[in-house]
Structure formats: structure tokens, C-alpha cells
Amino acid sequence: MSFGKKIPILASANRANVESVGDDTIIRAADLLCAGKLVAFPTETVYGLGADAENVDAVMQIYAIKGRPEHHPLIVHLAAPEDILFWADNVTEKAQRLLRRFAPGPITLILPRATHVNTVVTSGQDTIGVRIPAHPAARQLLQAFKKRGGHGIAAPSANRFGHISPTTAQHVADDFGNRIAMILDGGEADVGIESTVIALTMARPALLRPGSIPLHELEETLDEKLFLPSDTAQDKIPRASGTLPSHYAPDTATCLVDSQNLMQEYARLLTQGKRVATLAYSIVPPCPEHMKAVLPADAALYAHRLYAALRALDVTDADVILIEAVPDTTEWFAVCDRLKRATTAK
Ligand code: TXA
Ligand code: MG
User: Fold this and answer.
1) Cβ of 45 below 6 Å from ligand 1
2) What is the pTM of this model?
3) Distance, CA 157 to ligand 2 centroid (Å)?
């Protein structure tokens, strides 16, 4: 069970900096990025907190505002695959295969960094994460930024470090209020969990963070088995903040329980006088309506709604969020990974 400390919601009411996606707001957002400001924008996975990846001060602001340790590298978002050549000194054959099949889309590639690239964005590492998002608003923003001479937008998920990633503009406003110049509202993120991260900088391609792309499709494309986070030599793979044991976590204490033990655990916590919220997909304890979320029993639909549900339960007065463990099958691999991190003690 993880016991976090509830951090007050900043400014739900204050949406002054939230702007709907439109031709004029995209242009203003691109101008703000060029002026060294931070702009949150929608992607198909989760919302990103963007800055000009070449502007050291702007990138440092991302770390400061998120409370993110400086040794966690950022992903550089690009308009098109050819833009990778500015950032990476080698787009390997395996990388090209993945790009042909999955880009634009919810995949991030870790490649050798081009020597001229400032190491603030890579946290001093000699590798760089690049991603070409598929969301139309992200693409428009990247293209407008490129027209103004920009080479890429550095963007982590737009949440406080370690907290739940945002899948709506309101989630971003809840975490940061008006501390960022603009939040572009493009509606609910489609996928709902962060991109698949694959490192192509070692002898064998490594899966640093599972996402919505099925493992067998990645391996089929690469024509070899991926090195998995669970493999024994994990200490040899590069650090990724999304691979920390505790991440994507609510502030409320959380507890992951097998379906067959869920009702019993619920009853046990109630006898201890605890206020209990539940996130489930097959069995639903008799929690008050606002303290339960029942998600679809389909992994992709579940992922789409997971973070919004966790955020909603996190702001109730629950002492504990009980989470029904999901099936241990390949379709649920990425969701399972996120639930484990959400329920690991900080
Ligand atoms: O879906 C996503 O990837 C979202 C959207 C906004 O694009 N972004 C996102 O960024 O999740 P962030 O910073 O929250 O997570 C990026 C992950 C982290 O686990 C980070 O450590 C890893 O990618 N990463 C970035 N650059 C890396 C590098 N050079 N080597 C190893 N890991 C890297
Ligand atoms: Mg993140």
C-alpha cells in the first residue's frame, strides 16, 4: 500500500490560460514557445508540457515547475521523422523500421544524441528521446513551431513529478494553474497512457516503458525479442522516470487487490473506520457513488479512462483507493505496469 500526502488542487476554478485548439491559438502557442515560454498541449497519449528544446532556460523551467529531478531526460517532440537527424547522430535501421510502422504515433525512440545538442534536455546523457506525435493539434503546433525556425519541442507529461499524467486540459490546470503561459485544450487524450519507450542504443533493443502498442507488434517489426524491464540486467538499461517503482501515483494511499479478495479487503478497511474508494472493472464494492469508478473490461478502453478515474477518486475524502488488479495477460501489460507504479510506496 502506498501512503502519499494529499496536495491541494491548485486552481480548478482558474482556467484563464486554457484555450481551445484553433488556427489562432496554435499560432499564439508557437509564438509563446519561440519566446521561451511553456505551453501545455494535447497528444494522443497524454498532455505534454512543452518548451523550445533548444532554449536552455525554457527547458530548465520545465524541471522547476514539475519539481522533476534534473537527471530525468525529456522527450523531444518533432513534426516529421526527417527532423530526428538534427537531434540524433544515427537513426539505426531498427529505428527506421519502427518509424515506418508506428510514426506518427505513441512511440518514443531513444537514440545516440547528436554532439551539438545541449545536454540539459538529455540530463547529461549521450542519448536522446524523440517522438512524432499523431494528435492533429500537436502536429499543427510542431509544424507552426518548425516554420518559425524551431527544431523540436521538449515535453514531459504535464503533471507534477510522480503524479498522475493528465489526459485533459483541466488536469493540467489542476496541477499547474496559471503557472504556464498557455494550456491548449484539444479534448480528452485518446490513448490515455504514456508512449511506448524503446532504447536503440544497446546491443539489443530494450523496452523502457510499455505503452499501447502490443509487444508482439514491436517484436515483429524489429524481427527480434525486446529486452524487457523485467529482465535481470535491468540495472544496465538507461534510467527512465516512468520506470521508477513509484510513479503515476495519486496522493491518496492506494492498494492493489486481486478480484477475489476485493470485497473482503473493502470490508476489513471499513471496520478500521477507513473511508474507502474503489477503482474496479469486474466487481464493485458498495462504495458511495462518487467514491467508485467502474472501468471497461477492455484494456484499451480501460487505459483511456484510467488517469481521469484515478484523479477523480484522489480528490474525494477517501483515506484509501482500492484498485482491482487487472488480468495478467499481454493486452493488459502496460495498464498493469501503471497500476503497480501507482500503488508502490513513495
Ligand atoms: O506519451 C508520452 O511519452 C508523453 C507525451 C507528452 O509525449 N510524454 C512523457 O514524457 O510521458 P515523460 O517525461 O513524462 O516521460 C518520458 C520518459 C521518461 O521515463 C524518461 O526518463 C524517458 O522517457 N526518456 C526520455 N529521454 C530518455 C533518454 N535519453 N534515455 C532514457 N530514457 C529517456
Ligand atoms: Mg511523466
Assistant:
1) yes
2) 0.94
3) 4
